[in-house]
Specification:
Methylamine Dehydrogenase, Chain H; mainly beta; 35 strands; 3 domains; four-stranded antiparallel β-sheet
């Protein structure tokens, strides 16, 4: 009689795999039971299979670049930037968005900053979009007038300010020489339509000092006495945010990724960037992710950049994997049992990765599941029966550009270290 074949009691599944042959599915200890195929199911914390809930169409349209927090979402619908509230109500915030330009977002201080590779930028606050950055003015026209300035040669410049406090750089100055019985008449150059005030700076040495702030409609002002009483002009040679494809807020600065460079703003001046404020990389930057004490960059490799001063920061290679552009999300404390601080999660050419403070970086799924190379991707968080799952979507250049710019080519849900 034939011998009885060994039987395996399945106490739970360990997730999806595509790196082993069917005959190798059960490990030697018969404690690990992966799946070769799984459709419309997810794993519970008890490692049991449960049918995935269905879905219905919430709103129709040609969408891409979906982003959201706990309060509202943003997306490009056709050529409109729209806000999507929790009840799925949509509000058009801006018209004329480039239809095929993916938008990158990040938030700080109640504002969500956005930019696409066509250079369209701004920030969303209180259900409206606002300008991000303001251009510098031309040089003012100077003439002598009555006053009591100390004799010498003076330099004068004028900046403009938006209602939200953003101030322009001061690229252009004018000079004039006065005697001890004269002052300076400053004719204000034309200002932008959105500016609500202008600030005049002057000095007869290396530094310039604030003389006063005036309504934007002011035609001219006079400087007749002490020019060192106001605050000094700092970061005068800044530029507005450069065009970028990836953006990130980290530790008081805005970072913009364009091709193989990262440009960073002056501290707490998110609309002003210095010409020397950049970090070079070997290949185009596809992802930046902020965590406590540093941030991650994916370019030719994946780097951890530690410290708050990018000019003096240390960079360490943590992986040779490359991020799938657009796939970044964050896992907050309490969403997974082992997460005690905010971590970043994204897709790479080697699967899902988890990146935390201090350069704590690990590949979650590469030992069980290999991913095809993708051009773009996205990760969404879904909570079902108290279990938080990360759902990943990827597309390549041959996929249709509809449906939020992503095509569901490979779908995976991460439950701790497993995939289904």
């Amino acid at each position: 009689m034939p011998r009885n074949q060994p039987t395996n009691k399945i106490r739970g599944f360990s997730g999806l795999t595509n790196v082993v042959e069917p005959e190798e599915l059960v490990d030697a200890d018969r404690t690990k039971f992966p799946l070769l195929e799984a459709e419309n199911v997810f794993l519970t914390n008890a490692r049991k299979l449960k049918q995935r809930a269905g879905y219905t169409l919430a709103t129709a349209g040609s969408y891409h670049s979906l982003w959201g927090n706990n309060d509202f979402g943003l997306a490009v619908k056709g050529t409109d930037l729209v806000q999507i509230d929790r009840d799925l109500t949509e509000t058009v915030l801006r018209n004329g968005m480039a239809p095929r330009s993916p938008v990158s977002y990040d938030e700080t201080g109640g504002r969500v900053y956005y930019m696409n590779d066509a250079g369209q930028r701004g920030y969303v606050e209180s259900g409206a979009t606002h300008p991000w950055g303001i251009e510098h003015l031309e040089a003012p026209t100077l003439a002598t007038t009555g006053g009591s300035l100390a004799a010498g040669t003076y330099r004068v410049t004028v900046t403009q300010r938006l209602p939200d406090g953003q101030e322009s750089a001061a690229w252009h100055t004018s000079s004039i020489t006065v005697t001890g019985t004269q002052g300076i008449l400053v004719t204000i150059p034309p200002v932008d339509a959105g500016a609500d005030s202008v600030i005049v700076y002057a000095g007869n040495g290396q530094d310039l000092y604030k003389m006063g702030e005036y309504p934007a409609a002011t035609g001219s002002v006079s400087i007749v006495s002490n020019v060192t009483a106001g605050r000094p002009l700092l970061d005068w040679d800044g530029t507005t945010p450069p065009q970028a494809t990836v953006l990130m807020y980290h530790s008081g600065r805005m970072y913009l990724g364009l091709q193989s460079y990262i440009y960073f703003s002056y501290p707490y001046k998110y609309g002003m960037f210095g010409e020397e404020n950049y970090l070079p990389y070997g290949e185009p930057v596809t992802l930046m992710a902020s965590v406590d004490g540093g941030f991650y960059v994916s370019a030719d490799k994946t780097y951890y950049v530690s410290g708050d001063n990018p000019k003096a920061a240390r960079q360490d290679v943590v992986s040779d994997a490359k991020a799938v552009k657009g796939s970044l999300t964050y896992v907050e404390r309490g969403e997974f049992p082992e997460i005690t601080k905010r971590h970043a999660v994204w897709l790479t050419d080697r699967g899902f990765v988890l990146a935390g403070p201090g350069g704590a970086f690990r590949h979650l799924t590469e030992e069980e599941f290999t991913f095809a190379v993708a051009e773009q991707g996205a990760i969404g968080k879904v909570k079902t029966d108290g279990v938080t799952k990360l759902v990943g979507l990827m597309k390549d250049a041959s996929d249709d550009d509809n449906n939020f710019g992503m095509a569901d080519r490979v779908s995976a849900e991460v439950i701790r270290n497993s995939v289904t």
